[in-house]
Amino acid sequence: MKNDLPIGVFDSGIGGLTVVKEIMKRLPHERIIYFGDTARVPYGNKSRDTVITYCRQIMRFLLGDGEPKVKAVVVACNTASALALDTIAKDSPVPVTGVVGPGAKAAIEATKNGRIGVIATESTIKSGIYNKVISESGRGFEVYGKACPLFVHLVEEGWADTKIAAEVAEVYLDELKNKGIDSLVLGCTHYPLLKKTIGNVMGDGVTLVNPALETAKSLEETLLKLGLCCSGNGIPEHRFYVSDGEEKFRDFANSILDSVHLETADVTRVVMGAEV
After folding, report:
1. What pTM does this model have?
2. Cβ–Cβ < 8 Å for 18, 211
3. pLDDT at 275
4. Tens digit of pLDDT for each residue in 200-247?
5. Domain match, 217 and 86 both
6. How many domains does the chain have?
């Protein structure tokens, strides 16, 4: 495997750009190829089989035919990580990192009273994946999950820091506040963009865990272990692909990726849908 190959990152839409942002900060010399499945978002209300099919299609696009075109893949989507990670990682010729494991590990390290909250999409919560991963530590933690589907729409509409977002957060998070949690996993890649609003509701006594940041750390550890870190020192060129809505994606990306300015030609539309 060549260490100058790019890193593949994919998400069900645009939220995975929060993971890209953390990777760019931590690994500034690495090239990134990002795919956002904006034509089929959200994955949160899809079946396991459907999500696995989508992820296999995207993996085939990122890897290409023959020799892999990327040296590692990051599944920057909690729902895809929960429902499809094991399946696609088993068949992948390159290391695959999801967002659930790193986020769960950080929550375990953060909690002092053993009460951990998780907010995510309905599919991620119903899958019980965070409960499973956290319980595997064998330390008897109590995990409380809450689906917060409107958070995604608030972020994509640019309403993350509004009164409306605060009111929605109050309703969603009241249940978790009553459970006495002291760490809260932001279990959807959109949610870190609501960190200020969520933090105001939960208070200073609750540590907010950002799986995007933890995933970037995990990716760095994997690349170092395998000797795959890029040896170059120049400014990397990133590529972005979506399955629909190039203009909306471009606007959102430019609003959160400080070091990248996307022109029209920098976002390419790819048609997905072939059966795998």
Report:
1. 0.92
2. no
3. 46
4. 999 999 999 999 999 999 999 999 999 999 977 778 899 999 999 999
5. yes
6. 2
Catalytic-labelled residue, pool 55, 148, 188, 230: 188
* 72 and 172 co-located in one domain: no
Q: Which of 77, 148, 229, 230 is catalytic?
A: 77
Catalytic, 188? Answer yes
Residue 93 domain flag: yes
- The greatest distance separating any two alpha carbons of the chain, rounded to the nearest whole angstrom, comes to 53
* CA pseudo-torsion sign 249, 255, 260, 264: positive
148 assigned to active site? no
110 and 201 part of one domain: yes
Within a domain: 274: no
- The first and second tokens of residue 179, run together, are 């459970």
17 within 8 A of 256, measured Cβ to Cβ = yes
Asked whether residue 250 is domain-assigned, the answer is yes
Summarised one tens digit per residue, pLDDT across range 234-251 is 788 999 999 999 999 999
**227 lies in which domain range?**
7-98+213-269
State pLDDT tens for residues 34-58: 999 999 988 888 899 999 999 999 9
